[in-house]
Every structure is written in C-alpha cells, then in structure tokens.
Amino acid sequence: MAQGRTSRRARSRISRAAYLVILAFGALAMFIPFAWSLSTSLKPLSEALAYPPQWIPRVFDWANYVKIWKLVPLARWFGNSAIAAFGVTVANLVLDSMAGYALARLDFRGKRLLFLGVLAMLMVPFQSVMLPVYIILKDLGLLDNYYGLILPLAVQAVGVFLMRQAFLNLPEELEDAAAMDGAGRFRMFWQLSLPLVIPSLLTLGLISFMLSWNNFLLPLLVANQPNLWTVPLGVVMFQQEYFVNWPYLMAAAVMTTIPVAVVFLAFQKWFVKGIATTGIR
Fold first, then answer.
1. 197 and 106 share a domain?
2. φ/ψ (deg, to 5) at 94
3. How far apart are CA 105 and CA 167, in angstroms?
4. pLDDT digits over 140-197, tens only?
5. Which of 42, 114, 241, 263 is the most buried (most CB within 10 A)?
6. Does residue 50 lie in a domain region?
7. What angle (nearest 5°) sits at the alpha carbon of residue 130, between those of residues 129 and 131?
8. Contact 74, 259 (CB under 8 A)
9. Is 54 within the bounds of a domain?
10. Is the separation of the CB atoms in 101 and 195 below 8 Å?
11. Using CA atoms, how far apart are residues 200 and 197, in angstroms rounded to an integer?
C-alpha cells in the first residue's frame, strides 16, 4: 500500500512538472512576438534591416518613441480608443448584466429560444455582419462619430452569457427571502444579486475593454476621417505610409499594447476569480 501511494505521488509530480513545462513553453511562445517588437522599436533603422537579425540592439535608440508622437497624431488616436473603450465597457456592464439576469431569473415566453439565439451569436464572426452593420450605421447617421464606435458593441453575446452563468450560481433562496421582505425585482437585481457577482462584472469589464481597444474592423467601417481613427486603425494606416521604417512602427505597436497590458495585470486576480465563479472552464 505504501509503495502504491509513493508511486502515485511520483506520477502526480511528474505530470505536474510536465504541465508546468508545457505552460512555460506556451507563455514563452506568446511573449516572443512582443519581445521582438520591443527590441525592434529600440533599434536604428539600419540595424532593424540588418541580416541576420539580432535580438539585443547594439544601440538603444529611445528617440523612436519620441519621434513617433511627432510624425502622427498618436495622442488623438489614444483619446479616440479610450473614449470608445470606456463607452463600450460601461454599456456592456449595464446592458449585459441586465440581460444576463433576465435570462437567469425571469420566466417568460421564448426565454429558451432567446438564450439559444445568444449562444448562436457567439459563433457568428463580425466579418459576416459587416455589411448590414455598415448600412444600418449609415442610415442612422452614425458614421464618423463616437456613437458609431460604441453602439454596435453596446451589447455582446459573450457578456450576456457570462453574466447569466454568474447569476445562475447564486442561490435562489436569497431572492426568495428578499421577496418576502417586499423587495421588487429591480431591487433584487441592483442591491442583492449584482454586488454578489462583482468578480464577474470586473471580468466582463476587462473583456469589453480589451475587445474594444483592439478592435480594428468597426473603426475601419465607421471612421472615415483621420481625426476619429483609433490606435489599431491608425497604426495600420501609419504602416502603409511608413512601411519601411520598422522601428517607428514597432514603437507605435508597443505603445498600443501597454494600456491593455496594464489593465489586464491590474485586474488579473479578479479576471481569474470571475471566470471560476461563473462555472466556465
């Protein structure tokens, strides 16, 4: 018996070590592109085009980060991305949580069919609905303004599904007790259920912010004027104009990823907790 337990412990340690090695290689594979971008952004142009390429620059040219601000209206692009991401995040937190609560707690005709529609939307890529979205935004006069960058993403199927799962994990006895005390449905949602799913709300906010900040196709449809370009769209347009100068391009790309990385690292603990408490694996 003792020998069998020892053997199982040894196998468990070996499998755990194998998992850690696989995760380490996966993390390294995802970090390599960012490391290469950072290295290129600190090189002079001649060194960036040299062959064979070198990971560590011989001369660290920090001026690339200063020059990029003078070449393009990067501050304007950052401001547009921040406005769009903040608007989408707030709209998702409000509307997705309300829709998720309704699907989790309310009984109404067509509820199951509506939830199946939400699940179906998870499998529909934005590329397949680009043309209808563009026509609707054009007919409503929402092109070349911030409303066009926010309203198409105000409600997202992934957010509705995430919040529905979070509310389903709450015991119904809490709301039954609140109903006996005379609480209405909105009060149950706002004062009882919503504070209990704060980790899921933070997870939803983080996902919404990242999706909006990194979104390229919607700004490409909506923003015809350069003063409304977001950072991803502006970087692509900058690449078309300065496609030879890779250090400038990589400097812009690195600065584009910094806000998302900072937000993710700040809420990483809540993100993991929110995913765990919703039952999504």
1. yes
2. -80, -55
3. 8
4. 999 999 999 999 999 999 999 999 999 998 888 888 888 888 888 888 888 888 988 9
5. 42
6. no
7. 95
8. no
9. no
10. no
11. 5
